[in-house]
Design a protein that fits this description.
This protein is 9% helix and 61% strand. It is built from 2 helices and 9 strands, in the order αβαββββββββ. The chain has helices spanning 2-15, 37-40; strands spanning 25-35, 46-55, 61-73, 78-86, 91-113, 122-140, 147-164, 169-179, 193-204. It has an 8-stranded antiparallel beta barrel. The longest helix has 14 residues, at 2-15. It is elongated.
């Protein structure tokens, strides 16, 4: 995570000196994340952070490309299969428990229509589409501390609302849904989609 923060800071600082106020600009997004749907019952509040490129900066119909990383840890041990234990006379089926860390890397294009006739302040909407690579790391409990990784792809759609204080800072709330079943793969965990809410800020330079 530390390299991502350094990349964000260096990119933003290099663009502060640009002279064209109406040009495209870099930005960063920082949000708290609340898992919803089936995986929300098992995973705790996490965070989302990433880079953004803002287009049509002075237009009422602002848009942006965002590249995000999210992380959320399981609230408690998750059953990830079973194993057999010898009880002296036969085998018992025992749940295999693991602690899980869910990470995701997403890229999305979002439209940000503003109520004001420009993109410098006021209320705006958020509508986006993109894709997400989900990466779940399972750390099994027991003597050997085994780990396993599950990777899944999702088609992602987002909607939300925000308030722009000035040309550089906003506060935003978004609902994001990632559909894992669009490619016909049916061996996914926690249901065919993963939804989450974010609340945070977007800063552009």
């Amino acid at each position: 995570m530390r390299p991502l923060i350094l990349i964000c800071l260096s990119a933003c600082l290099s663009l502060v000196a640009q002279d064209n106020p109406g040009g495209n600009r870099m930005g960063i997004g920082l949000s708290l994340l609340s898992p919803q749907s089936a995986w929300g019952d098992l995973f705790d509040t996490g965070f989302q952070a990433g880079l953004q490129i803002h287009f049509n900066r002075e237009s009422r119909f602002l848009s942006r490309l965002r590249i995000d990383y999210l992380q959320s840890d399981s609230k408690r041990a998750i059953q990830a299969g079973t194993y057999l234990v010898w009880n002296g006379s036969g085998y018992d089926t025992t749940p295999r428990l693991a602690d899980s860390r869910m990470e995701a890397y997403s890229i999305a294009y979002e439209w940000l229509p503003h109520l004001e006739p420009h993109g410098r302040r006021g209320l705006f909407g958020i509508f986006g589409v993109g894709g997400t690579l989900w990466n779940e790391t399972l750390r099994f409990r027991g003597a050997f501390q085994e780990t396993d990784t599950e990777v899944e792809w999702g088609f992602t759609a987002s909607a939300g609302i925000g308030w722009r204080f000035n040309p550089h800072a906003t506060v935003e709330a978004r609902f994001v849904n990632s559909d894992l079943s669009f490619h016909g793969h049916h061996n996914y965990n926690y249901g065919p989609s993963r939804a989450y809410l974010t609340f945070g800020t977007s800063l552009r330079f």
